[in-house]
Amino acid sequence: MTFNKIISHWYRKNKRDLPWRKTRDPYRIWLSEIMLQQTRVEQGLPYYLKFVDHYPTIKHLADAPEDEVLKLWQGLGYYSRARNLHATARHVTYELNENFPSTYSEIIKLKGVGDYTASAIASICFDEATPVVDGNVYRVLARYFNVDIPINSTEGIKYFKQLATELIDREQPAEYNQAIMEFGARQCKPQSPDCGICPLNNSCGALAEKRIKELPVKIRKGKIRNRYFNYLVMTDKDSTLLEQRKQKDIWQSLYQFPLIEDARELEEKDIVSHNRFLELMGNREYDISLYNKEAIVHKLSHQHIHTRFWIVHLQGTLDNGIKSSRIKEYAVPVLIANFVEEYSF
């Protein structure tokens, strides 16, 4: 059997029973592909089920408030995906009359959709022979063909896309694309793959050259940026204060406690003399204490957020405060959600 036939045969015997594999509805395929970007299936599955329960059609998603969509997405990370998802749902619903585009060239024009997602939707839903190339596919191809071109280089992206185009099963592109992704996720795993039971082990270039651990090659990321967040958890008798992140930055449109950010770790004297703190306090009396002496380090792909929570008890009533009992209704970064759970307002 050829490479693609072997992969597809393995898939039919070993594929996981996943809900998006029981449909060719482009809305649900699109939803699953966006959710599973940089996310494990085990983590993304509950979110997928929750979304299709709340929004069974693309129009339901389009008509939902953005805050509600972000709240359902909370904990999945990469919140720009959720905002793009919502914007695209509105575009398809109100500008395309709920007709999801049916070709790769049209699908890739949608906001938040790149080559991989457009290829997946076009092939799975519409049988277009457009090859998917995600992390799993890069790994399978790099190992099997013993290719050490960096997968995140311009040359590598072009090379592996061309290779994938040559290999795709043009008679059954939907099955083949899902098969090679599943094969990379479960058989040709990043760490310690069981090459002894691999159906490709007799012809795998990396296995023959003992290079499984070396491939695929990836150029190292740039320097990690460190940011220092100080959240002011302001409370009166039964209220606290939240603000929405408006700037184009991480967690855009999510809610947070008032924030003081600096290029270094701040102490109490720095906090209470900061213009932001003085602006919030006015002439009111307060007590301040540090909740966590050791900063919580929240690691994102290109930056580490060093976070301290300062509890500020106010005399009098907060201006524009919300009831502490309602705080869990707001979409917040998981960092704050964890604090809220632990602090027990």
TrEMBL record:
<dbReference type="GO" id="GO:0051539">
    <property type="term" value="F:4 iron, 4 sulfur cluster binding"/>
</dbReference>
<dbReference type="GO" id="GO:0000701">
    <property type="term" value="F:purine-specific mismatch base pair DNA N-glycosylase activity"/>
</dbReference>
<keyword id="KW-0479">Metal-binding</keyword>
<dbReference type="InterPro" id="IPR023170">
    <property type="entry name" value="HhH_base_excis_C"/>
</dbReference>
<dbReference type="GO" id="GO:0035485">
    <property type="term" value="F:adenine/guanine mispair binding"/>
</dbReference>
<dbReference type="InterPro" id="IPR044298">
    <property type="entry name" value="MIG/MutY"/>
</dbReference>
<dbReference type="GO" id="GO:0006298">
    <property type="term" value="P:mismatch repair"/>
</dbReference>
<dbReference type="Pfam" id="PF10576">
    <property type="entry name" value="EndIII_4Fe-2S"/>
</dbReference>
<dbReference type="Pfam" id="PF14815">
    <property type="entry name" value="NUDIX_4"/>
</dbReference>
<dbReference type="GO" id="GO:0034039">
    <property type="term" value="F:8-oxo-7,8-dihydroguanine DNA N-glycosylase activity"/>
</dbReference>
<keyword id="KW-0411">Iron-sulfur</keyword>
<dbReference type="Pfam" id="PF00730">
    <property type="entry name" value="HhH-GPD"/>
</dbReference>
<dbReference type="InterPro" id="IPR015797">
    <property type="entry name" value="NUDIX_hydrolase-like_dom_sf"/>
</dbReference>
<comment type="function">
    <text>Adenine glycosylase active on G-A mispairs. MutY also corrects error-prone DNA synthesis past GO lesions which are due to the oxidatively damaged form of guanine: 7,8-dihydro-8-oxoguanine (8-oxo-dGTP).</text>
</comment>
<dbReference type="GO" id="GO:0032357">
    <property type="term" value="F:oxidized purine DNA binding"/>
</dbReference>
<dbReference type="GO" id="GO:0046872">
    <property type="term" value="F:metal ion binding"/>
</dbReference>
<comment type="similarity">
    <text>Belongs to the Nth/MutY family.</text>
</comment>
<keyword id="KW-0408">Iron</keyword>
<dbReference type="InterPro" id="IPR005760">
    <property type="entry name" value="A/G_AdeGlyc_MutY"/>
</dbReference>
<feature type="domain" description="HhH-GPD">
    <location>
        <begin position="35"/>
        <end position="186"/>
    </location>
</feature>
<dbReference type="InterPro" id="IPR003265">
    <property type="entry name" value="HhH-GPD_domain"/>
</dbReference>
<dbReference type="InterPro" id="IPR011257">
    <property type="entry name" value="DNA_glycosylase"/>
</dbReference>
<dbReference type="InterPro" id="IPR003651">
    <property type="entry name" value="Endonuclease3_FeS-loop_motif"/>
</dbReference>
<keyword id="KW-0004">4Fe-4S</keyword>
<keyword id="KW-0227">DNA damage</keyword>
<dbReference type="InterPro" id="IPR029119">
    <property type="entry name" value="MutY_C"/>
</dbReference>
<keyword id="KW-0234">DNA repair</keyword>
<keyword id="KW-0378">Hydrolase</keyword>
<keyword id="KW-0326">Glycosidase</keyword>
<dbReference type="GO" id="GO:0006284">
    <property type="term" value="P:base-excision repair"/>
</dbReference>
<protein>
    <recommendedName>
        <fullName>Adenine DNA glycosylase</fullName>
        <ecNumber>3.2.2.31</ecNumber>
    </recommendedName>
</protein>
